[in-house]
Amino acid sequence: MMGYLYGYGYGGMMAGQGVFSLFFMLIVLIDLVLLGLWLWQQISKK
Question: 2 versus 39: which is more confidently predicted?
Answer without folding.
Answer: 39
